[in-house]
Amino acid sequence: MNKSDVIILGAGAAGMFCAIEAARRGRRVTLIDHARRAGEKIRISGGGRCNFTNRTVAPERFLSENPRFALSALSRFTPAHFIERLDQAGITWHEKTLGQLFCDGSASQIVALLTRQMADAGVNVQLGTSVQSVTKGECYLVETDRGPFHAERLVVATGGKSIPKMGATGLGYQIAQDFGLTLTPTRPALVPLTFAEDLLAETRTLAGVAVKARVSHGTTGFVEGLLFTHRGLSGPSILQISSYWREGDEITVDLATGRDILADLKTLRTTEGRLSLQRALGRFLPDKLAALLLSRTGATGRLADQPNARLEALARQISTWRIRPIGSEGYRTAEVTLGGVDTDTLDARTFEARTQPGLHFIGEVVDVTGWLGGYNFQWAWSSGWAAGQAL
Ligand SMILES: Cc1cc2nc3c(=O)[nH]c(=O)nc-3n(C[C@H](O)[C@H](O)[C@H](O)COP(=O)(O)OP(=O)(O)OC[C@H]3O[C@@H](n4cnc5c(N)ncnc54)[C@H](O)[C@@H]3O)c2cc1C
Fold first, then answer.
1. Does the pTM of the predicted model rise above 0.90?
2. pLDDT of residue 258
3. How far apart are CA 306 and CA 320, in angstroms?
């Protein structure tokens, strides 16, 4: 009989981290994953360099029905703790923007480090193993295509539904429901937004154009890159706002990003009034985008001939472009899944289900979702570490 102290389902960031911690504390740990390689999302993350954490981890950068739930784990295992592990292993890194930390070399270095640490700690890693059922009798029983596995404790670290092609499934949510835990609604997040056919017809020629923009939804806004695509909008500012946007809502795009575009146009009208509107806007925006914005306001001709009201309308179009996306690209391309196992059903220190002793949920399967920028991996490390101390 294959018996251990702990079975962990999911050899992603959270599952591997938890396995290392528990095994270092003397627990016999079996880690099961249906994928043939561990840590596939780490490997492809951050453009192959893994944005493994962020210097400014704070609860308001996480979405959850209870944002304070994440505080305990995030403050016990911090970005500094993870950085220390990389430093000890000689994995060099750099800060890009907005506190985002990336490997200098490759994301595979982190996977190799975790794999080595699991081996050193004696974790029994079962890859390429399909889970058939999970039940609880005297202990937890996981039936797989490679036979049964038993343990006193079961940790579910199967992640969200994002990118099914990479092995994402809804198994974690199913297990939670089977054991009577509640879920908060799940939806794709950190995902490109799509346009209806009429808006797409207008913007299609812009596919590939990238600019800096402030994109907002209600009182939440992000100033980062924005990219026009063949389907709608992408880029970091859009991925960020997608976590807040809901079907039917508008987003506001400010292409002036802090610049007083009206004042600038008025100054140009005085100093270079012979400039065409197209060339004047071309000073601030890519030509194709300038042309689209002009056509939306119907403005043409030389700058000198534009009355204030026309410039005001143009400035409004540039700094307050209201767009109503029709949807998102969905789980096919979403970086994460919003929602998940209801935090009310879990202990914030141990991640154990309040009503189901010995059953823990960590990482993305839990209703805690970070902003873009390394927050989601930090959540995986912190929750994995915290559960690992409690097993
Ligand atoms: C393209 C992309 C880029 C990203 N870049 C970043 C980044 O740079 N920084 C950042 O912070 N976050 C990034 N993320 C998000 C980050 O990858 C996730 O938040 C993180 O991997 C979640 O860790 P996890 O361990 O909870 O789940 P996962 O890493 O998704 O691991 C879950 C594991 O469970 C296994 N599993 C699932 N279902 C089953 C089943 N039925 N049976 C057995 N095993 C199963 C999977 O094979 C997988 O190995 C990115 C995501 C994507 C998709």
1. yes
2. 84
3. 20
